[in-house]
Every structure is written in C-alpha cells, then in structure tokens.
Amino acid sequence: MADLSSNFLGIKSPNPFWLASAPPTDKEYNVVRAFEAGWGGVVWKTLGEDPHVVNVSGPRYATLMGPDRRVQGLNNIELITDRSLAINLEEIARVKRNWPDRAVVVSLMVPCQEESWKRILPMVEDTGADGIELNFGCPHGMSERGMGAAVGQVPEYIEMVTRWCKQYSKMPVIVKLTPNITDIRFPARAAKAGGADAVSLINTINSIMGVDLDTMIMSPSTGGKGSHGGYCGPAVKPIALNMVAEIARDPQTAGLPISGIGGISTWRDAAEYIALGCGTVQVCTAAMVYGFRIVEDMISGLSNFMDQKGYASIADFQGSAVPTVSDWRYLNLKHIDKAVINQDLCIQCGRCHVACEDTSHQAITAFKDGQRHYEVKEEECVGCNLCVSICPVPSCITMKSLKPGEVDTRTGETVTGEYQNWTTHPNNPMREVTA
Amino acid sequence: MNRPIEKPGALDLPGIAAGRLAPESCALNFTDAHPPLNPLQALLEAERCYYCYNAPCIEACPTGIDIPHFIQRIAQDNVLGAAETILDANVLGGMCARVCPTENLCEGSCVRQTNESKPVEIGLLQRFATDAYFAAPSKPIFTRAAPSGRRIAVVGAGPAGLSAAHRLAALGHDVVVFEAHSKPGGLNEYGLARYKTPDGFAQREIEWLLSIGGIEIQCGKQLGRDITLSGLVEQYDAVFLGMGLAGVNSLGIAEQQLVGLQAAVDFIAELRQAKDLSAVPVGRRVVVIGGGMTAVDAAVQAKKLGAREVTMVYRRGAEAMSASAYEQQWAQINGVTIRHWAAPREILGSDGFVTGAVFAVTRDENGKLVETGETFTLEADMVLKAIGQSFVAEPLDLSLALEKGRIATDPSGQTSHQKIWAGGDCRAGGLDLTVEAVEHGKQAAIAIDAALRA
C-alpha cells in the first residue's frame, strides 16, 4: 500500500492533508476533532497581538452554489482569531503534546514592526509547534490595518518580515501568499529572498458574493452593509493551480517547497496540486461544507490512486506535471488535433453543433440526410476542444492527433512531425532567426 | 398518512353500490395522482435539461412549446417567463402538463432518455411553471389586437374550441362559443380521470383563458338542437367546429338493455361531476372492455371507488394498446388486471342486470386478428365499454366532406366549406390527444384570421 506520509521542511505528518489556517483550526476542540478524523496536520488559525480582534456577529460567509446547492465557492469576512493570545498558545502546546505525530503549524499576523514579530515568535516557539505560516494573504479587514494582503502585495515587506522571522526563530517559516496581485512570482521570490523555507498558496480572493435584488443590499451584509470577503472553494482551484505552477517552474523559485491551497475537495484535487509540485495540501472549504470526516475519503482516494499508478510515496509523483507547464510561445504550432464524435455514444443534444456554429469555427454538422446528426467537419476543425468541454456525455467527443504524413484538411498541409513554435514562426515579426 | 378505515362489509356488497369506501378513503384515493414539484425539486429537475439545440422534445410536442427555453427560465427563477413560453404555444399548457402522454411525446424524445433512461420531467416542470403563474399571475400574458369587427362562432368548448376562441380573441376577433353541456371544458371537464386534475383545475384554467376578453360562452346550446350550422355560417364571419366525438362505439355483439352495461365515458363524466364520491355507485366486479386512455381512466377510477375486482380486457397485446406503457403500468399498480388477446363475445345478464361477459380468446395470424375458439367468462356486475368513440355527423345541416367518418380538412383545419374550420377529435386524421386539439384550434384560428384579412 502506498505510503502517504509527508515530510515537509522536516515537519512530519502521516498524510499530506493539512487543515488550512481558518475557522476549522480556531481552537483545541476543533483541532482535536480534526486529528481524530485523520487529518495529517493543521495550520492553526492566525494568531495576532492582544487585545484580540473582534468579529462581526452577523453573516461571515456566503456561497456560490450549484442548483443542487453544492457549494462551488465560499467567501468569508472573518478576521484572525478573536481569542486571546495566551489561550491560543496554551491550547497549541497541549494539542502538540497530545498529538506528536501530527503537524501543528501556527499562522501569524502582527503589525509590520520588527518588535511585534520579535515578541511573538519565542512565545510560539515555546509551544513546541512545528513551524509558522506568515499570513500575508487575508484580503479583508486586516488588510485595512496594514496587515495580511497589504503585506503580501508588497514584495519588499514580505522579504523584510520573513527575514525577521528567520532571525528571531528557529522554526521553519512558510509564507502564505495572496492571489490578489498581478504576478505571483514576485512575492514568491521575495519570500525566498527573505529566507522562507516554503510558500503556501493561495489565500482567498477579493470578492462580493452577490446582491440581494429585493433589498438591493450586497451579500453577505451585516445589518445592511457589507464588505468584500475572501473567496475560496472549488471555483478558485484553477487560479490557484496556475499560481502554484508559476512558482514551481520559475527558475528563481524552483525547488522552493510549496503547500498547495485552493478548493481542494477531493483526492484528485490534491493529486493535481502535488503533481504541480506541492509537498502538502491545505483544505478548508471542503471541511466547512462536509465536516472533518471528508479527509477519510481523500486519503482513501489518494492511496488507491497511488497504488494503481505504482507510486510508493508522495515524492514519486510530486512535481511530475511541472515540466509540462510552459509559456505559450513554446507550444508546437505544427501539432494538429481534430475532434472526433463517437456516434454510438452521441445522444444528439446538439450542444456541440450550436457552440461551434455560434462561437467557434462552424466545424460540426447539425443534419445528415435530413436527420439530426453531429459530425466534425475536419476541414473546419481547429482542434479547439470547445465541443469536448461542453459535451454532456463523458468520452463522447475526443481529440485525435494527426500523425506525421496525415494531411490537415483545414490547411491542406501535411503533418511532418516537426516542432515549430511562435519564436521561430514566419508570421512573427520578432522571430528568432538562426544565422 | 393514516389509511382511512373502510366501511365494514361495504366492499363486498353485491351488484352496483355506492359507498364501498368511506368518504375519507375516497377523497384520499382521488387526490393528485402525481403531486407537483416543490421549488427545489423543480430547480434540480430544470438543471437536468441539456438545453438541446434544435431540441427533439420541441419537435415531439404537437403545440411546439419551446421546452428548453421554458425550463431554462425555471432554472433562472423566472417562472413568469417560463409560463409565457408555454402558454403562448399552448394556451391549455396547464392541463396538458397533467394529461399529456409525455412518455410518448416530449419526454419520450428527451436525450436524457437516450442517455440514462430517465428523461427530464418536462410535464411536471410545465405544471410547476403554469401552476406558479396561475397562483400569482403578475401580469397578463396576452393582450388583444385591435378589434377586427369580425365575429366567429365556435362549436364546442373543449380543448380545440377554447384554443381556437382564445387565439381568435387575441387576434382581435369577437368569439361566441356554443357548448352543449352545462359547463365548458369538454373532455377536460368531463372526460379525464378525476385524480389527473383535482381541485377544479379545469374550470380555473378556463376562467383564466377567458380573462383575455372577447369570448362569450353559451352553455346548453347543442348543434342540431339549439343552433344550426347553416345558421352560424349565415350569422358569423367564420365557424370553427370542435365538438369532439358524441358517439360511443358499440361492441359489435348483441347489447341488451342491462343495468351495469354502460359507456366508460359516461361513468367517467359522472365521477368527474360528482360532489360526493362515496355516492357514486360502482360494481363489485367491473370489466372494462378496451385498451385506450379512457379504458384506463375508467378501470382505475372504478378500483379507487372500491370495486373488488377490475379487469381490463383488450383484444390484442400490450404493445397495440393505445394507452401508453406508462398508463398500462399505472392501471396495474392500482390493482387493475389487464387481460390481453380476448374479444367480447356475449354480455351476460339476469333480471335486467349484468352478470358477466364471455370473451373469445384471440391471436394474431399474419397481422390478422382471429379467434382461437377458446372462450372464458368473467363475472361482473358492471361492464364498461371503452372501445373508442365516433363522430356523429347528423347535427350538421350543411354537407361537409368526411374522411373515415370524421370531418376532412386541409392542414390548417379548413373543411370543404370555405367558412368552416374544424379541429380536435372531430377532425379526421388526428391522434385524439388534448394537446393536438389545442394545436388544431390555434392553427385554425391563425388560418381564419388570415382568411378574414385576405
């Protein structure tokens, strides 16, 4: 059976599933329940300076739901812990003592002053916690006070605070990044420059969940007024995966350990993050929707997947997909794919036809001999994959790659099997010309 | 739900008797056969629709309702928009949602049926949208065009006549509908199983339909008795005939005058109009002869009234029955026994009362139905005839071309008389479905309007 155990910066956990710093890790009671359910580790909900912050006593969450009320996205306006530092530290110490095999990382957020960090770090270290995560990502409330995302949006601050943490503590330092920036590589590079042992990402995305059209009040609202919240859940996964991959493949940060966060609800999501380079994954929304028991299903799925693929450990496939992430300019413009519709599986809903006809390349028929019939017109098909993406029947439409010697009937060109990308393409005025 | 207690012994009263079940039992048996979807169910079901392009369900609907659009509007929490889409194509969309054999029409062609043998519940969704609209009509869906000054007579206030009248009124014409019965609705009011349309829905729907204005209904006016076709042709600019089928087909064997031998349609009409179901008499053992929707409606309702044994007898196999497979199952799960391959040979009676029927066993020989020589007898104190209805042409005092005994028309519904159109069951070549009658009425109204404005 596959070994799911994880060693991330020397922090060991029986599996790579950690609970992210968030309401589920707010206090001992929750964390103990999580460990009992099988979670490999937790990042304790962000500690701050006393006096502790105050949360609204009204809606802190709102969701984007599918019609079956399956949660696709969740946003929140909850701040960091609203309990005193002393109580949190006491509980952290007790939990770590009672659960030595689990990872206990403590999330921190104090003002951008050296004194503040210098003061809190030894207190955290005294709990026996395995490491710290610097919350440079919280996009609401705390950012208005110059913390959270306000720090994460300024690479120089990231580097500065990270350096203080490395200076005043022996604990591994994970820097949690905000996605509310233009290029994730800059804050990641700054973290590395400051000495960070790892980055974790993504934190939540600035969001307004919606508007109540009867009252014309944004949601969620506290007594008729709302504030943007942090968005997470399955809907953000693609955004997070891209940011993870960008850091994994950036020569300046390649090899920097990554803890992946963002909409992980299934073992499959976790495996994708790992394949793009993550050493652990952090989960919040799935636990908030289903409870801690969901980890059992993630562990089961990941274990069976690894067994089926012959991966003995997480390291066996960690980062496997990173080399496949490239710049657009290096994509092979000589590679030709065509869509193929399996007529035995086709249920004749016509969605591929109308999607292609209205919004793509008019490459799918609607009729044949007066009968409904959906078939790819290869001479029009650019291989865009839209039909595959919207077909309701699994595997009904697939893409086939033309082999060398075959003719692309759209262009009349014979596939040669050679590789040519934009950098050398004749249409590119800036092309690299070989001497 | 507590099962109401049946009257001790009443089930076994011999002969035809009312009150076999306690009133509460009856009431329970005749509640909505297919309860409506609640809003969450409707949303979930709506989401199952693939929003097909050139959707097969639209092609399968005789009235051509744009089903993907109305379902999408339910999914987008816009039931008014959904109702507009439905009612614009089918003004009796509320009733059709209840009575259409959807498994043969829209749902039968749903691609989900192809994919997973579970079509989108289009009928229930249509009912959801129309029910929601009728419960709170936020604004009228139809407005009338400028008055044309034309007057059109409609004979029969059934689905075809009402549909024609409504469209004609919308197009600016004034309409007078002549109805032989004391209430409008035709088969919607008199001819459907009570559990398909409980709580007076037929009349509520008509009330809404008439709210467009410009339609006058005169009940108790029968063609050939109170009015004449030639008179209508003289007094009106055009005439639409939608009088349905007044005749009940005979069994083709000797039919004595016996208490208990009656037409299924009469039994159904009596049931529909009864104020107190426990006062409707029904046999202890009931035999229904026929294999259509009427036979099923009669048989199941007899069972629900407390008949001990109900047997439907049909001369061919299940696949030849005009009742859909779903309706056949519905009969069976309600305790009706269906006997295939048997034709009535003799109705048995004693002292003026039915005592049973003798059936000849049949089989198919190269497409031809033949009797095998074997017979069997079913004891019965009620025998209901449901082997179809026929058009009665006698009330027509003008000669109209007929085709297979019904009024011949062109595709628009125009008869051999240039001022007369016809639709619904009395028109030749149809499917005998409510939804088709509605389409006939609609198309004839459009054709009449075009002819009058030509």
Automatic annotation (TrEMBL), chain A:
Question: Is Iron-sulfur set as a keyword in this record?
Answer: yes
Q: Name one GO molecular function term.
A: dihydropyrimidine dehydrogenase (NAD+) activity
**Per its UniProt entry, which superkingdom is the organism in?**
Bacteria
Keyword Hydrolase recorded: no
Which residue ranges does the record assign to the 4Fe-4S ferredoxin-type domain? Answer: 337-369, 372-402
Q: Which Pfam families match?
A: DHO_dh (PF01180), Fer4_21 (PF14697)
Family matches, as Gene3D superfamilies: 3.30.70.20, Aldolase class I (3.20.20.70)
Reactions listed under catalytic activity: 5,6-dihydrouracil + NAD(+) = uracil + NADH + H(+); 5,6-dihydrothymine + NAD(+) = thymine + NADH + H(+)
Might you give the EC number(s) for this enzyme?
1.3.1.1
User: Which SUPFAM superfamilies does UniProt cross-reference here?
Assistant: 4Fe-4S ferredoxins (SSF54862), FMN-linked oxidoreductases (SSF51395)
Ordered alphabetically, the record's keywords are:
Iron, Iron-sulfur, Metal-binding, Oxidoreductase
Similarity annotation:
Belongs to the dihydropyrimidine dehydrogenase family.
Q: What assembly does the database describe for this protein?
A: Heterotetramer of 2 PreA and 2 PreT subunits.
Can you name this protein?
A: dihydrouracil dehydrogenase (NAD(+))
Automatic annotation (TrEMBL), chain B:
This chain's function reads: Involved in pyrimidine base degradation. Catalyzes physiologically the reduction of uracil to 5,6-dihydrouracil (DHU) by using NADH as a specific cosubstrate. It also catalyzes the reverse reaction and the reduction of thymine to 5,6-dihydrothymine (DHT).
Concerning InterPro entries, the annotation shows: 4Fe4S_Fe-S-bd, DPD_II, FAD/NAD-bd_sf, FAD/NAD-binding_dom, Helical_ferredxn
Q: What protein am I looking at?
A: dihydrouracil dehydrogenase (NAD(+))
Describe the reaction catalysed, as an equation: 5,6-dihydrothymine + NAD(+) = thymine + NADH + H(+); 5,6-dihydrouracil + NAD(+) = uracil + NADH + H(+)
The EC number of this protein is 1.3.1.1
Any Pfam family the entry gives: Fer4_20
- Which top EC class is given? oxidoreductase
Q: Which UniProt keywords apply?
A: Flavoprotein, FMN, Oxidoreductase
Residue ranges of every copy of the 4Fe-4S ferredoxin-type domain listed in the record:
40-73
Species name: Uliginosibacterium aquaticum
Subunit annotation:
Heterotetramer of 2 PreA and 2 PreT subunits.
- Tell me yes or no: is Heme among this UniProt entry's keywords: no
Q: Which PANTHER family match?
A: DIHYDROPYRIMIDINE DEHYDROGENASE [NADP(+)]
The cofactors named for this UniProt entry are: FMN
